[in-house]
């Protein structure tokens, strides 16, 4: 008994033969299932762009149905539906811009409280960026569950988790006498 190829989209197994797999992947059922699967993960901008590129489906709008379904090269959406998609996209973009503005406003409020000028703001920003990079560079340590219940100030220094400043300020001690 030879090995078999399993298709996740179709939930089928077929003989593991290059020609059989190629024939299966080019099949209408596989293409339909694959397209419907990936359609779930497309963002609104991509869907809208694709719909704008397509021309209206003659069969769908004149006969009321299209035999190709999701595999049809033409659009099955009328102008009102495309307009609704555009409105949704604009609303989504507006929400993103609004969130960015709110985030910027919050950061500006914190700076105004400190009465920073441009020079002070720049130095603090660069210091904050540098500290974040340093914090991400050094490893983070977690205490074992049994010790985590204690306040870290109660623990002896050997059990406290080191911070990135401890790594920076570390000066190795020598076990040998280097003065000779």
Automatic annotation (TrEMBL):
The entry's keywords: Metal-binding, Zinc, Zinc-finger
Protein name: C3H1-type domain-containing protein
One Gene Ontology MF term: zinc ion binding
Highest taxon in the source lineage: Eukaryota
UniProt xrefs under SUPFAM superfamilies: beta-beta-alpha zinc fingers (SSF57667)
Domain (C3H1-type) ranges: 51-79
Zn finger residue spans: C3H1-type: 51-79
GO CC terms of this entry: U12-type spliceosomal complex
Organism, as annotated: Brachionus calyciflorus
């Amino acid at each position: 008994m030879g090995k078999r190829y399993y298709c996740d989209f179709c939930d089928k197994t077929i003989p593991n033969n290059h020609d059989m797999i190629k024939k299966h992947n080019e099949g209408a059922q596989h293409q339909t299932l694959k397209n419907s699967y990936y359609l779930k993960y497309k963002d609104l901008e991509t869907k809208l762009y694709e719909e704008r590129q397509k021309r209206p489906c003659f069969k769908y709008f004149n006969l009321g149905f299209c035999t190709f379904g999701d595999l049809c090269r033409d659009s099955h959406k009328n102008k009102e539906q495309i307009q609704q998609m555009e409105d949704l996209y604009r609303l989504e973009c507006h929400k993103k811009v609004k969130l960015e503005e709110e985030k910027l406003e919050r950061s500006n409020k914190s700076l105004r409280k400190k009465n920073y000028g441009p020079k002070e703001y720049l130095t603090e920003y660069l210091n904050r960026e540098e500290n974040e990079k340093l914090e991400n560079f050094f490893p983070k340590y977690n205490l074992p569950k049994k010790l985590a219940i204690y306040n870290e100030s109660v623990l002896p220094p050997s059990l406290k988790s080191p911070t990135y400043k401890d790594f920076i300020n570390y000066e190795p001690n020598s076990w040998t006498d280097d003065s000779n």
